[in-house]
Amino acid sequence: MYLSKEAKSEIFAQHGGAATNTGSAEGQIALFTTRIAHLTGHLKKNKKDFATQLSLQKLVGKRRALLAYLYKKDIARYRAIIKALQLRDIIK
Questions:
Q1: What is the pLDDT of residues 50-86, one digit of tens each?
Q2: N- to C-terminal Cα distance for the chain?
Q3: Which burial class, exposed, middle or buried, applies to 76 when counting CB atoms under 10 A from its CB (0-12, 13-18, 19+)?
Q4: Angle between helices 50-73 and 25-45 (to 10 degrees)
Q5: What is the pTM of this model?
Q6: Opening angle at CA 77, ends 72 and 83, nearest 5
């Protein structure tokens, strides 16, 4: 698998507060962003992989829903994760 257990725990430690805090919104958004980047690279090479394209669309939707939740609950945390991951501000 392209994302090992150690890589995931490092993502959660960096963005979620602790390596074992896998349920935090920031950690999940960071993990989704890493997976989205990987799938985007795969789709650039394999343009007709429609199963991966569907998976990518679902991941983008999940990340967007988590960002919307974070926007409603705590705008400061939302702005921090947007800045840390260098994402566009998608909530209008």
A1: 999 999 999 999 999 999 999 999 999 999 999 999 9
A2: 36
A3: exposed
A4: 150
A5: 0.88
A6: 115
